Amino acid sequence: MFSLLLVIIYIAFISLGLPDSLLGSAWPVIRDTFGVPLSFAGIVSMIIAGGTIFSSLMSERLTRKLGTGLVTAISVGMTAAALFGFSASNSFVIICLWAIPFGLGAGAVDAALNNYVALYYASRHMSWLHCFWGVGASISPYIMGYFLGTQFGWRGGYRTVSAIQIFLTIALFASLQLWKNKKRERDRSDNVSAKPLSITQAVRIRGVPFILIAFFGYCGLETTAGLWASSYLVEYRGVNVETAAMFASLFYLGITFGRFLNGFVADKFGDRKLIRFGVIVAMIGVIMVGIPFETDTIALAGLIVIGLGCAPVYPSIIHATPSNFGKDNSQAIIGIQMASAYTGTTFMPPLFGLIANTVNIGLYPLYLALLVVLILAMTETLNRVLGFPKKSSAT
User: Is residue 114 within 8 Å of residue 318, measured between CB atoms?
Assistant: First the structure.
């Protein structure tokens, strides 16, 4: 039963990744459909992230009341409905309205599942599970790229991913009994009886402010890189729309493959070393994207390298949370971490959209570089504040 539950969790992580790269892949065509500026992709992204911030902060209460399994199933169902709503939208305003349930569905499940895995599974499983998030994020741009070349267009891409999400929702509801393992239920019951940790109390814990800023920077980096890669290739490098949609997925493929490899070494090297190494690799990738060669080969390879660098950062930071700040505090802190991360998602991509619209989209690599430096500075500061951790979780 425990192994089958792990399979279900893997499926849930696929569902988390599926919708994340759709908007960036399809936006060059969607904006033409509704006649809106390039920068408006940031508005949609901001609404989605705003919903995730709210539901992430509510995740502790929701998980205590409903349990991780039910929160996951309901949340995936909400994203499925929102994706179908996107495909049926006849104006930019309607897309913005559907972005609200999309964000609300994403936030609670993200925080609940990440805490569950951080508490009960080894670091390698956190990496592989987030690799499966990358599987979903890598598949959807190919789906969108295919439909962009057909009569169904971007609407067909959204409807196809919505159908996949509906199937996953059914599978998750069918698996609810698996989550009611006696050990897990006892752990959850104990957590319910404990007094909730307030946001103020959490932020006062030593080192928490630094990890919140690091999460802000990381999600800003990942979302900006994914959202604007296709537009950067089309608008600045002159790549055609269909090819750009396909190549934008290279970033997510880099994350996926990197997390697969990371799972084999995560327990040996520890979370902190993997974070440091990943950030350095991401910077190398950003430099490759920014090199002004006539050929696009180096830039396209750079997207993969950025993804490889991003690969260990998110799962390693999450997995280290119970060790860094205590198991009793982990659900509340991970929820706040998710909120901080999605604050970065909310503001950093639209900020770059404004820069691209008013200055030049060619500043994309420089913008990414600034975010990489922020992540490195905050995670290294956290290392110094907490000292050298135990080898088991974050050396």
Answer: yes
